[in-house]
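#onboarding

Welcome to the new folks! Below is a worked example of what a typical request in this channel looks like: someone posts a single protein sequence, and someone else replies with the predicted structure as tokens. Don't worry about understanding the tokens yet, we'll cover that in week two.

Example request:
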Amino acid sequence: MDSQLLEINLISAQSLKPPFGLRRVQAYAVAWVEPAFKVRTHVDRTGGENPTWNDKFIFRVPTGFLANDSTSAVAVEIYAAAGRILPDPLLGTVRLLVGNLRLLSRHRDCPAFDAVGIRRPSGRFHGVLNVGAMLLRCVSLVVAKALTACPAVGYRDLMGKEASKIRRFRATPAAARRVDPTAGKDPALEGWNGGKGSSDGGDEEERSDGGVVLCGPCFLGLPRRIHLSPSDQLSWMEEKPADDGRP
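Example response:
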């Protein structure tokens, strides 16, 4: 069956009616095409009765779902976060008829926006849900892989999973340690030398056991002047041709 990638953006809601017993509304929304696969927004803890989410979700739907005469819809429920003990009360529901947006006649990746009335549990309409929808031409490899396992995914959930992978493979503090130029000592040189700097803060030039100590220029490959021993200087002067006075 031919399918399409439908992106739904739950932008915001306005004029939500607070439930009885809650002085402060912290709302979130749950959306689905199939009841077995639901996605949800984050909880807006500052907007109160006018929350803003701007969360985007991708649904894999058949082409007939988007037909102009189709009665299929994206269901949205809005809840108020009540804490860990009490259940979250339902503030209202929305049934978004995607066929009314005529997405099949629009260009791909071109969104359409709509404001839909929110039906309270009592059956009365109170408040508005601002939503956007569009058909996607293509998606990233991460989204395509997620859609093979579940027909509904959220961008925020995918970002959270990628961030957890990055934290899992993050370098250890010892490996991520950087050289502090103001400390006057290079940890890399210190590891090569097998010891720490002298007590007076200066760099060690030789070790008490007579071992060789690597200095900065030698370790970093910088040019360094080589001093000849007295015997080598005498041999070099004997081999040097006499100066005849000519320029």
